[in-house]
Design a protein that fits this description.
With 476 residues, this protein is an alpha/beta fold. Helices cover 38% and strands 23% of the residues. Keywords: Oxidoreductase.
Length: 476
């Protein structure tokens, strides 16, 4: 059943003259017709958010918290519905989609609680007749730009802390997956957020709408998850009005398996890290480094396990790998595999697109991979695990760090000294030590080093990006 939607501006659902279609990547069927915002709608959203900020920023924290609690409860009450919508527009298997919706709701719950813990300080003064106070206040209007690979979780991870801090928000979801975001905003409206506090812009022209959001001085904060290329562009544009900006960008995660590791545990770890969401996560494994003494055994185990993964429409029972998001994504995966094979790599499992109407690619393992191949330096964003071999700890640490990215890294070992050296030596914001899923802790700071981004999301750290620090010196 095709879903039709309008924009949400200033507390009203606003129709537009133009719409764009949303298609199911598993079968190309149209699943939604969505209002297509242009720059004039972006200006209206900014005006609404700016007008609402004066009152919302003064709303007592317990009241903001209570609204977030209501939103959290409504998301959980509609979990199955949202998950079905998510699978239809993004493709991930339904159990995985349900897990994401619960994860998304938990961000709202966390920041419902954190809203009541935004504290200032009183500092010792240098003179008897002075008092020093530090206040934390909301930064202002926030533009939240979210990606297609986690259409629910990336919305709440940005919007919930902004609302908790007392900011007003303009949400622009990815054009590939706007339906999940629309449903979340409908539930936020039902929870009772005042008009203008939360606004929604869906658009097929993100560059034009993004230009307005990044250049209007009334927008004081940009929070973005997406490609490094687009993140750099937003960073440049935001500089003219010195906006606060949070960027969660691309990654090129190494997964290192030392000879003392539990091989079965490491194989399971690669599968969970690499093939979740068909490899379409910014923290997923991109380079598997295996110590040469165990490389043959590890490759055999991994290829055997990957060959058993079931590919198909995410609504079907037992499916573990859904489609890629679109033809462009599928072609990139094919290009990386073809380049690797032309330079000497071998296919240990999978290796080609699936003959079906959707954008499916077989879960793949490549052996004999070297640094001369595209897959060694570019983020694939698909279900392909390239295996590299190494000899020593120092060698693999240097190779793992030899990238402009620094989002997530993983390593498996049972030697305590090596654990200490590696976790301190890896230039990454997130480290999984014998753990393929460190990002599932909503209380932890999520973010990267180098060209993988700025600031952190999650936990108490996620509020910092939405708060200004004001120092007051009172003499009497």
């Amino acid at each position: 059943m095709t879903r039709k939607s309008n924009l949400y501006l200033g507390g009203s659902w606003v129709p537009t003259d133009r719409h764009f279609s949303v298609s199911d990547p598993a079968n190309h069927r149209v699943v939604g017709s969505v209002a297509d915002a242009d720059p004039t709608h972006a200006i209206r959203a900014i005006e609404a958010a700016h007008s609402a900020f004066a009152e919302w920023s003064k709303t007592p924290a317990p009241q903001r918290s209570a609204l977030l609690y209501k939103w959290h409860r409504l998301i959980l009450d509609h979990c199955d519905e949202i998950a079905s919508l998510l699978t239809s527009e993004m493709g991930k298997p339904l159990p995985e989609a349900k897990g994401e919706v619960v994860f998304a709701a938990n961000f709202v719950l966390w920041y419902a609680e954190e809203a009541k813990r935004i504290n200032g300080e009183t500092l010792p003064a240098n003179e008897r007749n002075k008092r020093i106070t530090v206040l934390r206040q909301p930064v202002g209007v926030v533009a939240a730009i979210t990606p297609w690979n986690f259409p629910a979780a990336m919305v709440t991870r940005k919007v919930a802390p902004a609302l908790a801090a007392g900011c007003t928000v303009i949400l622009k979801p990815a054009e590939q997956t706007p339906l999940t975001a629309i449903r979340l905003i409908e539930l936020a409206e039902q929870a009772g957020f005042p008009p203008g506090v939360l606004n929604l812009l869906t658009t097929s022209d993100p560059a034009a709408v993004g230009d307005v959001l990044t250049t209007d001085a009334r927008v004081r904060k940009i929070t973005f998850t997406g490609s490094t290329e687009v993140g750099k562009l937003l960073y440049r544009k935001a500089a003219d009005s010195v906006k606060r900006i949070s960027l969660e960008l691309g990654g090129h995660a190494p997964f290192i398996v030392f000879e003392d590791a539990d091989l079965d545990q490491a194989v399971t770890g690669v599968i969970l890290s690499k093939y979740r969401n068909a490899g379409q996560t910014c923290i997923c494994t991109n380079r598997v480094y295996v110590q040469s003494s165990i490389a043959e055994r590890f490759a055999e185990k991994l290829a055997g396990a990957v060959g058993k993964l079931q590919v198909g429409d995410g609504r079907l029972e037992g499916v573990q790998i859904g489609p890629l998001i679109d033809e462009r994504a599928l072609e990139k995966v094919e290009r990386h595999v073809e380049d690797a094979l032309s330079k000497g790599a071998t296919v240990l499992s999978g290796g080609s697109r699936v003959d079906s109407p959707g954008y499916f690619f077989q879960p793949t393992v490549l052996g004999g991979v070297t640094e001369s191949m595209q897959i060694a330096t570019e983020e694939t964003f698909g279900p392909v695990a390239p295996i590299f071999t190494f000899e020593s700890e120092g060698e693999v640490l240097a190779r793992a760090n030899d990238t402009p990215y620094g989002l997530a890294a993983y390593f498996y070992t049972r030697e305590i000294g090596r654990i200490t050296r590696m976790q301190e030596g890896l230039d990454y914001g997130i480290i999984g030590v014998n753990d393929p899923a460190p990002s599932l802790a909503i209380q932890a700071p999520f973010g990267g080093f180098k060209e993988s981004g700025l600031a952190r999301e999650g936990g108490k750290y996620g509020l910092d990006a939405f708060l200004e620090t004001k120092y007051i010196s009172l003499a009497f």
